[in-house]
Amino acid sequence: MSTAERARRKDPLSFYLDKSDPAAWKAVGGLAAAAKNAAAAAGLDDQLVELVNLRTSQINGCAY
Fold first, then answer.
1. Other C-beta atoms within 10 Å of 51: how many?
2. For residue 7, what are the contacts with CB-CB under 8 A and spacing of at least 6?
3. CB distance 61 to 13 below 8 Å
4. How far apart are CA 13 and CA 15, in angstroms?
5. How confident is the model at residue 12 (pLDDT cuts 50, 70, 90)?
6. What distances in angstroms separate CA 40 from CA 15, 16, 21, 49, one per listed residue?
């Protein structure tokens, strides 16, 4: 891909779900809370859950 093509593309990291679709953002928050509760119910350590959240954010390219 040429430099000009890259310049024309929008940076995917500049997309803010909370501003573009607040209902979807709220749903994602609910999903995160449900996953955290399920992990606690399964007996997973809170530190392990946070490490998984951190790694998932790294893989997704977002700043957790």
1. 11
2. none
3. yes
4. 5
5. low
6. 31, 29, 29, 9
Token digits of residue 27? 């749903």
Spatial separation of the C-alpha atoms in residues 58 and 64, rounded to whole Å: 8
Those residues whose C-beta lies under 8 Å from the C-beta of residue 28, and which sit 6 or more positions away, are: 17
Write down the pLDDT at residue 2: 67
Packing angle between helix 22-41 and helix 46-60, nearest 10 degrees? 140
27-57: per-residue pLDDT in tens? 999 999 999 999 999 999 999 999 998 998 8
Please name the residues in contact with 26: beta carbons below 8 A apart, sequence gap of 6 or more.
none
